[in-house]
Automatic annotation (TrEMBL):
Catalytic activity annotation: (2S)-2-hydroxy-3-oxobutyl phosphate + 5-amino-6-(D-ribitylamino)uracil = 6,7-dimethyl-8-(1-D-ribityl)lumazine + phosphate + 2 H2O + H(+)
Name of the protein this chain belongs to: 6,7-dimethyl-8-ribityllumazine synthase
Recorded metabolic or biological pathway in which this protein acts: Cofactor biosynthesis; riboflavin biosynthesis; riboflavin from 2-hydroxy-3-oxobutyl phosphate and 5-amino-6-(D-ribitylamino)uracil: step 1/2
GO terms assigned for molecular function: 6,7-dimethyl-8-ribityllumazine synthase activity
Species for this entry: Suhomyces tanzawaensis NRRL Y-17324
Length: 164
């Protein structure tokens, strides 16, 4: 299995002037907590001030697209617009078709939000076949894989800085 991340970036991006939202599902809490921590850690490493990282939770991954839209709109109404948002969720295959329907719907709707909201919406949803795959991608199994939340934090800063 290949273990990949963002790889080399063309330059170090300065996120010190950014406001980044993280909206996360509450299902699979152990994995979600690790992914959120990874994203927050990377955002701070890239200069985003702690007070400009806004973290909110919602019930599950299915709610991420609509919740993200409402979250961005609320921040804008309050005069504190976001420069990027990272919806974070974890979907793990069970024994029914539920997984496929939710993965497909959430993926397409999150992608569409980039255009509808006019800001970077980073795809922070793990779609895994097993609990072990999800734990590995959250960096919870030492030596197996890295924390993908870090990649999502880096992507949010790069996209918000590079094209504004």
């Amino acid at each position: 299995m290949a273990v990949k991340g963002l790889g080399a970036i063309d330059k170090q991006y300065d996120g010190s002037k950014l406001r980044v939202g993280i909206l996360h599902a509450r299902w699979n809490k152990k994995i979600i907590d690790a992914l959120v921590a990874g994203a927050v850690s990377k955002l701070k490493e890239l200069g985003v001030q702690e007070e400009n990282i806004i973290v909110e939770s919602i019930p599950g991954s299915f709610e991420l697209p609509y919740g993200s839209k409402l979250f961005v709109e609320k921040q804008k109404r309050e005069g504190k617009p976001l420069d990027a948002i990272i919806p974070i969720g974890v979907l793990i295959k069970g024994s029914t078709m539920h997984f496929e329907y939710i993965c497909d719907s959430v993926t397409h709707q999150i992608m569409k939000l980039n255009f509808e909201l006019g800001l970077p919406v980073i795809f922070g949803v793990l779609t895994c076949l097993t609990d072990e795959q999800a734990e590995a991608r959250a960096g919870l199994i030492e030596g197996k894989m890295h924390n993908h939340g870090e990649d999502w934090g880096a992507a949010a800063v790069e996209m918000a800085v590079k094209f504004n």
